[in-house]
Every structure is written in C-alpha cells, then in structure tokens.
Design goal:
heterodimer, A: alpha+beta, Aldehyde Oxidoreductase, domain 4, B: alpha+beta, Ubiquitin-like (UB roll), DNA polymerase, domain 1, 2 domains, about 15% strand, binds FE2/S2 (inorganic) cluster
Chain lengths: ~725, ~160
C-alpha cells in the first residue's frame, strides 16, 4: 500500500504491540487532577499524556468495532499535537461520561456513525492545546518569542538558532502552564495524518496473530462460564424449571434464574451448554405466543388504509393525485433483520459487595455502566467498565441484555462470570431491524415528471419502543430517509402509521435509512421507467436543490461508466441517499442466472463524508457496508411463527461469502464540508442500486426484500 | 484420562471430555483464544485450525480426534507472526473487527500450502467456508495473492 514515508513499518508494529499489551491489561483509571500532577507526565486533558521519553499515550473513547476508531482517534489528536506517529500508544477509555461523553449527544454511547464527526473538533483542540503548551515551554526555556517556534513530529524547533527540544524534554515545564481554551488549529494544508494515505491501522497486527482480545477472550481469575436458556417467545417468562439433570453434568456449578431466563453456570462453556441442554424449563410464553410473520404483514396491510401521522407535507399531494392525471402506485415490504455480529453477544462481570467490574464488547460503555450499577445496587462510580475489542457492533452492542445477563449471574453466584451466547441465541433473541409495509403513489405529468409524491409507512418505532421518544409522536428512526428524500417535487406527503407488535427492535446499521432508501430509490426508479427516461438523468433533473446528492450521483455514474455498453446479460442500476451526515451513491452491475440467482459483479460507490479523515478506512467502510447491504438484499429475512424466530444460524440466515462478493470501488468526493459518518452511509443505496439494475435487466420490479429468485427465474 | 495433543509444537495433556469440541479445549483448556467461536456448526470458519496440517473446523471436531496429533492455531502459524499471509494482511489492511480473521488466515495458509499460486477460483473454493460479516472479502483476496507472490519471491 501507499505509505507515508514518515511512518515506518517498524514503528507501526511497535505501536501495534503496545496496543496489544494495553488491551490485555485493559485497566486504566480516569485522568483526574491527581494524574495531571504525576511528575514527569504532561497530561493537559483526558485525551493525551506525554512522558519524559516522549511517548504519547492517547485515550480513545470510541469503541473499536472494526471501523478503525482506534487509529482515527489518535490520527486526529496526533496531527494537531504534531506527535511522532511512532511514539503513539493507544488506550481505550473507561466508562466515565463526565470525561469521555460524546460532546454532541452527551452520552458515552456510540451509534449513528458518530465517532469522527462528533469528536473531530474537540480532539483537534485537545491536541492543539498541548502543542501550544509545549511551544510555550520551549519559548520559556530558550527565552525567545513563541512566534519564532514551530514543530515537527515530536520536537519543537527554533529555526533562527537551529535549536530543538524533544517533546519529552518539555513535559515538566509544559505541565506548569495553563491550558489554552481556544488553541489555534492547523489549516488543512498543514495536516500530517488527517486525510493522508498510507497510515496503517494500529489494531491490525494483533488481529492477524491471535493476540487481539475480544469480550469472548477475557480471562479473569476464578471466572465461571454461563449459558442462558431463554424463552423462545419474545416477552415470555420462566414459570418453573427443574435443574436436577443440568446440575448432574460434570463441570456445572450453579443453575440460577435471571431476568432473561435460566443461567447454567459451569467451569467451562461446553459443560454450561450440556447443562443447558439437560435443563427443563416451563415457560409462560406470554402474549406474543401466537404471532406469525403472515399475521404481521396482514395487519400492516390493513393498517396501511388508515391515515398516519404526517411526517412531511408540502403542497397538496392528495389533490394532485386526484386531478385525473397519470398515477403510479406500488407497495414495498421489508422484513425483520438480525445484526449477526461475528462475535456472538457476551459479557463478563464481577459483582463484588460494593463494586462491579465489567469486561464487555460494548457500543454503550456509559449506559452499560449505569445499568450494571442499578442491577448490582452500587454507585455508578463503583462500576469499572473495560471496553474490549468488539467483534462487530452494527447497532446491536448498545443493547442492555447481554450486560444484564452477566451482572445478574455474577451477583447470583458470587463469582466473576462470563456469559456466552450461542449463535442460535444471537439470531433468535436480537433487536431486529423493523419489518415495514409501504404504500406509494405518484402523480406524473405528460412528460413523466412527478407532480405529487405520496408515501405511507406502516411499522414500529425503535425510539418509541425503547422509551426514548413519546408514544403518539413520529419516530424519527422510522421515517429517516423517507421524509427527507432529496427530490424536488411540488407536492409531497409522507405519513407514518405506528404498529408495534412487541417484537424487540433496534438500530441495525443505517437504521431507517437502510430500508427507506431501498423503497424511495426503487420508487423513483419506477417513475423514471414509467416516463421512459434514463433513471440517472431522471434523478439528476430532480436534484436541483440537492447539490451534494447530485455530486455523488454524478461521480458514481461517471466512475461506473453509466451508459457505456456492458456484456450481454448484464445491466446497471443506480441509487443515492443521505444518511448519518454523509451522501452516498452507488451503481451496481448485475446478471441473473437461469435459476434466478442474482450475481452482483461490481459496485461503484461515491461518498461525500465532508472531510475524509482516514481515506483507507473510508474505502473499508464502503466495501464492508456494501457486503452488509447485499447480504440483506439477497438473503436477509427473520420470520416468526408461534412468536418464535424461525432462523437459527448461518445455514438459514446466510451471509454473503467470498465467491459472491463483488468488487467495490470507492470514489471519495471531497466537498470540504463538515465531517459526516461512514459506518452506516455505505449501506442504504446498495439494495436499490441492485434491484434497479435487476429491473433494467429483466423488467421485473423487486418490491419485497430479500430478492425472491423465483421472480427472476427464466422458465 | 487427559488427551495428549501437540499444540503449536508443544505437547499438552488436555483434561477434557473426549466429545468436547477441540475449539473449547483450545480456548479454555489450553488458553489460546486466537481461535474463535462464531457458529458452532461448521458454517463460518472462525474456528479453523490445522490438524496435522489440514484445515478443520474446531467447533465440530471432538478433542479426541486430535489425540496424539499436531494442532496448529493462529498463534502458532509463525513464531514471529510474520507468515507471508500475516504480512500481507497488514499491508492490505484487511481486518475490520477482526473476529473472523484468524480463521480466514488459517484457511488461506492451508490453501497456500497446497497451491502456492492460487487462482481466484482456488481462493473462492478454499475460502468458501469462512464468513466475514464485516465484508473484507476483496482485501482478503488481494492479500492472499500478495502473500503468494511474497512466498514465491522468498523461495527463489
Ligand atoms: S465456529 Fe466453527 S465454523 Fe463457525
Ligand atoms: S473482520 Fe469482522 S467479521 Fe471479518
């Protein structure tokens, strides 16, 4: 790969080793006034400290779930600090919202692709303040004006006299200085790391040799391992259980009831699992026992005839639809989806009489700290949270259940306990992306241009179900990507009908946008074809008020060679969406086998994430986002029968594999705007780009996901 | 009645039941956590190790099947962690969350041992059993080709 000559491979490997060690130890007390005064350590804020050897230790608050946070965070801080990249060590922040909360949300919880975009300014200031103090310290030392000083990685330089002082030589003096509140930030052309190619992720070496420590890998002296039998029906409760046979299994130590079921606690996982198999539980299955997917669809359909809450209303769509012109109508449906993080849910807790330690792969260190405190009955400050590496997050690891499991079980057996979920537990006890039902109507004029857009969504609200938005209001997560579609149409009405069956729902990578981009970008494509127009040009003409959408659309079309000939049997589709602060457009190139099997050959993605802090990871997220989206479009479906999830593991909830994976090419469109997110925005346009391509190829419009290959079969 | 197994060149006595999957014996009895659990039913490849040089899914291999045999895990692939695949994985910046990657590398190592210059089709076939939920497939492919080239250059 293209390397920045200033960063040696050796230095990076060293950095990686330090990282590994840091993770294994994993403990760290929050920086406070006392830490500031540690002799020989310059710690101007909670984000960085420098010792006399010039080693810069940066604290990363954003959990590393694969998105590169453990490298992006130090890149930003080190850049403004002008630190030597080879002397960077990285530590994961403890749960301590007072010090480490996201400055925009106020919580120490991470979702919504908020890592870089919410923290960039604060971290730049943290680094810049330290650099300014080091310069001031050198100015005092040399008795020269600070304005004559500059920095290079790890050193302050006085060019007129040729003098240099390493940062490590300045820590004692710098520690005595006041911390500037508004330090001068670098201009873009001065960046050393931000926006540069060739910076290797610090966490990759340990992820290639087995040293990386995930939640699954935590080892605590005296730790027991638990597996929890859960009610197969959502919301069901334990009525009674017989642990006799379970307790007879060698290695099983305890069988205890917890909120989420019955925990079998053993000296090792295999014994816990055998014990669980021997356990007999009688469930009170509760109200959802009769629920089926068919009933959900039917009820949704019935409710789609009721008026909903109005999420957007411009002009008078209903009047325009009734004006006697041409009307295009369609119904779109998407299923429940599970996150399927590669690392099944788990957490390790040690509940002691007056404190708790939690080792957990978490997207929500602050929330899980508070939850553990409540469950254990100790003050929040007495809960130490060690955030391990996450084997995938995607929105799943902010939920409370796996932490509840570990804290309650540890408390019940009075020992440190790791609760390990099986893959089956994971698939069947998720917080699913909501299934929804959507009705579209559009009135088009004689030229095929839309004059009215009418969209009614039926489905549950994630924020409402979680009590984070009031019942009776419009759940922002349910309508995102639908109410803010970018097309300039005179009459627009978007409605939302809330229907929540009580199936647990959650934030699935790109949340509402993941499904609403599919339906809106499919429907606009339908209008283009109904008008006999090129779907790319048709969109362009409607994006007059959306320049950033237009720019990525153009870039993707150009990169993909939109309009140029393809081999026989292939076609392209296009789609564009805004989500989580960024604009993305995708062009997919597809073919269909005689049996209806869809092959996606190539995806070209254009992304405008404002300033691209870490270009290689921008590409990584686009590559990964595309595969995540394709898995959903081609296979993803969680169905219910008798209130139970029918899928259980990768054989019936399949993931895309290497042979099917298309080449993903990423074009970074530099808009120079404020930073946007990256974990999520690469997902939404992918499914519609594929299904729009399928329409161009076969004339079959896919209105329900996952794609039904029977519809595409050639007789 | 411990089960004798040589793991990464070290003779060990694993005090576990015969039917315990090798995965859990490796992780919990031998304490080597680089080998991962993700499905338990031979569907994802996260638990891939080499048994006498052949890739197996440790989650469905009873520990007794390894009696008296050689097991290689990700920790033992190369003493310094500098197997060409490990270097290529760093150079191509393959891992995202990384959880699948031990298994990916162990499958790829078995492939390279059998076919020093694999084609894309060889890669598709050898890596078919390894899921990456983060979708790092195109980098995995590039890194395998790169490692193959490195190996060739090194043996010349
Ligand atoms: S854990 Fe063994 S194949 Fe998935
Ligand atoms: S890197 Fe996350 S599952 Fe492969």
């Amino acid at each position: 790969m293209n390397r920045n000559p200033k960063i040696t491979r050796r230095a990076l490997l060293k950095g990686g080793a330090a990282l590994g060690a840091g993770l294994v130890i994993g403990f760290r007390l929050p920086l406070d006034a006392a830490a500031q005064q540690t002799p020989g350590v310059f710690a101007p804020n909670q984000w960085l400290k420098i010792d006399r050897d010039g080693v810069v230790t940066i604290t990363n608050s954003v959990p590393e779930m694969g998105q590169g946070a453990m490298t992006a965070t130090p890149m930003i801080i080190a850049d403004e600090l002008d630190a030597d990249w080879g002397k960077i060590r990285i530590e994961q922040a403890p749960a301590n919202p007072k010090l480490y909360a996201n400055p925009v949300t106020g919580n120490q919880a991470y979702g919504g692709s908020r890592g870089v975009r919410d923290h960039l300014e604060m971290w730049r200031k943290a680094g810049a303040a330290a650099r300014q103090m080091l310069k001031q310290a050198a100015a005092q030392e040399w008795n020269v004006p600070e304005s004559e000083l500059e920095t290079e990685p790890g050193v302050v330089i006085h060019r007129p006299s040729g003098r240099r002082l390493m940062y490590g030589q300045l820590v004692d003096k710098a520690s005595q200085l006041p911390v500037p509140q508004n330090p001068v930030l670098k201009t873009k052309d001065q960046f050393r790391y931000i926006g540069k190619e060739g910076i290797a992720r610090l966490d990759i070496p340990v992820k290639t040799d087995g040293r990386a420590v995930y939640g699954m890998d935590v080892k605590v002296p005296g730790m027991l391992i638990a597996s929890i039998e859960r009610c197969p029906v959502f919301g069901g409760k334990v009525q009674s259980f017989d642990a006799t046979a379970a307790k007879a299994v060698a290695g099983v130590r305890h069988v205890v009831q917890v909120s989420n079921g019955v925990a079998v606690v053993a000296t090792n996982f295999w014994s816990a699992l055998q014990g669980r198999r021997a356990l007999k539980v009688t469930w009170d299955e509760g109200a959802l026992a009769p629920l089926t997917s068919a009933a959900i669809s039917k009820q949704y359909e019935a409710m789609s005839r009721q008026a909903g809450q109005v999420a957007r209303n411009e002009g008078n769509a209903e009047q325009a639809l009734g004006a006697g012109g041409k009307v295009v109508e369609a119904v779109y449906q998407v299923p429940f989806l599970e996150h399927a993080c590669m690392e099944p849910m788990n957490a390790t807790a040690h509940v002691m009489p007056d404190s708790v330690t939690l080792w957990v792969p978490t997207q929500n260190p602050g929330g899980h700290q508070a939850l553990a405190a409540k469950l254990a009955g100790v003050p929040v400050e007495r809960v130490e949270v060690v955030t391990t590496l996450l084997g995938g997050g995607f929105g799943r690891r902010g939920e409370p259940d796996f932490v509840t499991d570990a804290v309650e079980t540890s408390k019940a057996v009075n020992a440190p306990v790791k609760v390990i979920w099986t893959r089956e537990d994971d698939i069947q006890h998720g917080f699913y992306r909501p299934a929804t039902y959507n009705v579209f109507k559009a009135a088009v004029d004689a030229n095929g241009q839309p004059v009215a857009w009418w969209h009614r969504i039926v489905g549950p609200g994630i924020l409402i179900q979680k009590g984070r938005a009031p019942k009776g209001t419009i759940d922002p997560a349910a309508v995102e990507g639908a109410r803010n579609h970018p097309y300039d149409i005179p009459n627009i009405r978007v409605e939302w009908v809330e229907k929540d069956f009580g199936v647990p729902i959650g934030f699935w990578r790109s949340v509402g946008s993941s499904q609403n981009a599919f339906i809106t970008e499919s429907f606009i494509d339908e209008l283009a074809h109904a008008a006999g127009k090129d779907p790319y040009e048709y969109r362009r003409a409607l994006l007059g008020k959306a320049p950033r959408h237009l720019a990525v659309l153009d870039a993707a079309a150009k990169g993909a060679g939109w309009g140029t000939p393809l081999p026989a049997g292939r076609a392209r589709g296009i789609a564009v969406a805004f989500s989580y602060g960024s604009y993305a457009a995708h062009v997919a190139e597809v073919s269909v086998a005689p049996d209806g099997g869809v092959r996606v050959h190539r995806i070209v993605c254009a992304i405008d994430c404002g300033i691209a802090v870490y270009p290689n990871q921008v590409r990584s997220q686009m590559e990964g986002g595309a595969i995540y989206a394709l898995t959903a479009a081609l296979y993803g479906k969680i169905t219910l029968d008798k209130g139970r999830v029918q899928q259980s593991n990768f054989h019936d909830y399949p993931m895309m594999r290497i042979a099917e994976a298309p080449k993903v090419e990423t074009i970074i469109v530099d808009s120079g705007q404020a930073p946007g997110g990256l974990g999520e925005p690469g997902v939404p346009p992918v499914a519609p780009a594929v299904t729009n391509a399928l329409f161009a190829l076969t004339g079959k419009r896919i209105r329900t996901l996952p794609i039904d290959r029977d519809l595409l079969k050639r007789a | 009645m411990a089960i004798p197994v040589t793991i990464n060149g070290r003779q060990q006595q694993l005090d576990v039941p015969n039917e315990m999957p090798l995965l859990w014996a490796i992780r919990e009895a031998a304490g080597l956590t680089g080998t991962k659990y993700a499905c338990g039913v031979a569907q994802c490849g996260a638990c891939t190790v080499h048994l006498d040089g052949q890739p197996v899914r440790a989650c469905v291999t009873p520990t007794s099947a390894a009696r008296g045999r050689r097991v290689t895990t990700i920790e033992g692939l190369d003493a310094k962690g500098e197997h060409p695949l490990q270097k290529a994985w760093v150079e191509e910046q393959v891992p995202q969350c990384g959880y699948c990657q031990s298994g990916q590398i162990m499958s790829a190592a078995a492939l390279l041992a059998a076919k020093p210059s694999p084609t894309d089709a060889d890669i598709d076939a050898a890596m078919a059993g390894n899921i990456c939920r983060c979708g790092t497939y195109q980098r995995i492919r590039a890194a395998i080709h790169k490692a193959a080239a490195m190996k060739k250059a090194g043996t010349r």
